Amino acid sequence: MQYNTPHIHLFKTPGGYYIYDVNRNTIVRTEKSTYEKLKSNSSDLSAVEGDEDIRELLDRGYLSSNKVEEIEHHATSMLGFYLENKVSALTLQLTQQCNLRCEYCVYSGSYHNRGHANNRMSRETALKAIDFLFTHSKDAKRLNIGFYGGEPLLEFKLIKECMEYAMKKSEGKLLTFGITTNGTLLNDEIADFFEKHDVSVLISLDGPKEIHDKNRKQNISGCGSFDTIMENLGKLRERHPAYMKKVSFSVVVDPTSNYTCVDKFFTSYELVKDSKKVSSLISSRYAKNETAAQDSFIKERNYEVFKVYLHKLGRLDVKHTSVLAIDEYNRLKNLHDTSLIPAKSLSRKEHHGGPCIPGVSRFFVNAKGDFYPCERVSETSDMMKIGSVDTGFDLESVDRILNIGRLSKESCRNCWAFRLCYVCVSMADDLTQLSGEKKISNCRNVRRSTEQQFKNYCTLREFGHAF
Q1: CA-wise closest residue to 233 among 201, 206, 281
Q2: Partners of 144 in the beta sheet?
Q3: 224: which DSSP letter?
Q4: Which domains does the chain have, with CATH numbers?
Q5: Using CA atoms, how far apart are residues 167 and 176, in angstroms rounded to an integer?
Q6: What is the pTM of this model?
Q7: Residues 19-66: pLDDT tens digits?
Q8: What is the 3-class SS of 113-155, one letter each residue?
Q9: Measuring CA to CA, which residue among 94, 116, 240, 115 is closest to residue 177?
């Protein structure tokens, strides 16, 4: 019997040999002999069909050569309904101006994304956007409105007006608010209002003074912003100690800095040690130049991740672990809980992982009232615009962004990381068009990082860890 090439990926760890079956979306541990036979005969199983272990895998439905025939997101046919009824989160760009000039900011001159402009969202535009949220959320029980900039606290009066207006319209809905801020403008009036209305506050803070101030500087003076943020946090905690649980920190880690120093700060510094942190490396998306990580940074970060894994195996006290490196473990937990969901087979029509439903999962309205999938895409790109407060959603644009897999159909359908891909539209945007070539340029990193996750996940399980 002639067999087609099985749609699988083979990998090994120091302790085992594994098959990731794309159709079944399952990782199977196997014997070395089976692994080697599959590796040597992956294009034709006829030569090894008599092997007992391979025959068992075939009988159990593994090693299928089935691949997706048509690239289409599962939400495509219902897109109009979703956009009309299921919008649940709105992010308002209140202003494009900011009182800081951060070296890595997407608004800075080193990026093709935005520019610091004097564009401010009018009250009329803001209320139109809020009206739009409520009229398009009939099936959403929970709604969230987020405030973004530039620096949104430059428009605190508008924030108050938006919140008060939205609360009057929110009967029957659970309405929450959040803000992303640099923290330099927090004062008693703002603190009292946010505490009263339980606003979640995400503050950008990159580490101790010498590291934070390297990139996050005041616009006019050029001085660092660390001292101002710490002073404001101290006043906030003194005034509303219980409210500090609503404050979290966005940590942009500079790969040219000392990772251990940054981590130690967030582990031990009194004002931040007990708060939630979300960390990420400086993004190269839309950047004109890439920030390369130093070897010392990579080694320090990997060591901290290793210690987190030791803790999860019960071999190291949590006090010795990194509050930033825990994100790596959380990704493995998410892989186990939400990504590796066993399936019978790939359908004839599917889309690779990555895109969320624009305007539904996330919904960004800029200062001019234009709609975008989220705050991470470039407002200088016509390809990213999906409507406006005056015209509503542009269904064709939403569909194009949702189904970016069409740009690279053959590459995607043949890729073993199809289900686990994280490429979204921003990775295909060259500011003039959606580029299949640009999209595919990310594929190598996707496969490499996914395989490394598989190896870490399986290694932890080999040592007895239960996710």
Answers
A1: 201
A2: 89, 176
A3: B
A4: 8-66 (no CATH), 77-299 (3.20.20.70)
A5: 9
A6: 0.92
A7: 999 999 999 999 999 999 899 876 667 767 668 888 899 999 999 999
A8: CCCCCCCECCHHHHHHHHHHHHHCCCCCCEEEEEEECCCHHHH
A9: 94
